[in-house]
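Key result, reporting period 2: structure in, sequence out.
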């Protein structure tokens, strides 16, 4: 896992350097600067150094926890920008993962129990349609319907700008929930299909096993057979999918954050890519890589804890 993380970061570093475009040219297009000032900034960010020197400087800084200064948001440091945007991404990502892997697992088990029936067919069609639906298109449709046409929910941002920071907690929390509904529904709708299909397939295979037939033959309640015996052995693929989905906690989804102007890391990473903001993009890549590694660790721990074969006695 460690070698994989190093290769991933190295590839991102190299690709960003060889891609066409100059971050200072883009910066100068927004704010005209004197050529002498551009040269000073080029030295300040180390862009006048050879590639190997730039790579060595970044690695040395990253080992100290210093990811440098953002080019597009100069003079803000990358660490400060990431810490400012991370809470919004954690709120969005954790809500999506909770909804995805509770409702998705339950619907997958429900499909497996009614395999081939009308409910299974309808849920299969719905999951396939949602899986094929672009997230940004669904988000725009929800904004057009629920925000512009019916005016039920806000269309953008994380908070109402007219609500003061000193407002009561209930007011601020309710406002956050109202702003959270559309991006959560959009991102959950296009990702829950994978959880449903994976859980359905694993559950169908498990329900055919001999130990499930033996549990039913002993006269156990059907709910206990399904959830206590069958599901515990069919949940492992979903746990693996959960670990792979953990980076959503960090980045959310770039398109969803962009459509709803959600102030998270996904939008920040998109800004870094479009503006060739090398330090900021590498900081985002470090967080995502850390989330992938953490997801693998959590997956191993969860599988070990749930698997009855790993328990003593």
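The corresponding designed sequence is given below.
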């Amino acid at each position: 896992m460690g070698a994989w993380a190093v290769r991933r970061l190295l590839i991102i570093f190299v690709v960003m350097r060889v891609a066409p475009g100059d971050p200072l040219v883009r910066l100068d297009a927004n704010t005209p600067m004197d050529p002498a000032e551009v040269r000073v900034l080029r030295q300040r960010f180390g862009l006048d150094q050879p590639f190997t020197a730039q790579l060595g400087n970044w690695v040395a800084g990253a080992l100290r926890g210093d990811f440098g200064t953002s080019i597009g948001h100069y003079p803000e440091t990358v660490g400060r920008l990431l810490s400012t945007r991370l809470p919004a991404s954690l709120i969005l990502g954790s809500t999506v993962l909770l909804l995805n892997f509770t409702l998705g697992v339950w619907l997958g088990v429900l499909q497996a129990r009614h395999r081939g029936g009308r409910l299974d067919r309808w849920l299969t069609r719905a999951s396939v349609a949602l899986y094929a639906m672009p997230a940004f298109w669904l988000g725009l449709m929800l904004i057009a319907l629920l925000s512009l046409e019916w005016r039920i929910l806000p269309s953008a941002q994380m908070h109402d700008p007219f609500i003061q920071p000193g407002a009561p907690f209930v007011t601020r929390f309710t406002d956050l929930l109202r702003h959270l509904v559309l991006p959560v529904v959009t991102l959950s709708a296009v990702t829950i299909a994978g959880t449903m299909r994976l859980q359905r397939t694993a559950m169908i295979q498990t329900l055919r096993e001999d130990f499930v037939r033996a549990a039913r033959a002993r006269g156990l309640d059907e709910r206990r057979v399904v959830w206590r015996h069958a599901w515990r052995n069919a949940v492992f693929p979903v746990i693996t999918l959960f670990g792979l989905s953990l980076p959503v906690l960090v980045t959310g989804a770039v398109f969803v954050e962009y459509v709803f102007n959600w102030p998270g890391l996904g939008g920040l990473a998109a800004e870094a890519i479009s503006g060739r903001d090398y330090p900021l993009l590498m900081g985002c890549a470090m967080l995502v890589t850390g989330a992938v590694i953490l997801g693998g660790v959590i997956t191993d721990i969860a599988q070990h804890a749930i698997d009855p074969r790993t328990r003593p006695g």
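The longest helix spans residues 169-207. Residues 56 and 62 are 10 Å apart (CA to CA). This case is discussed further under Risks and Mitigation.
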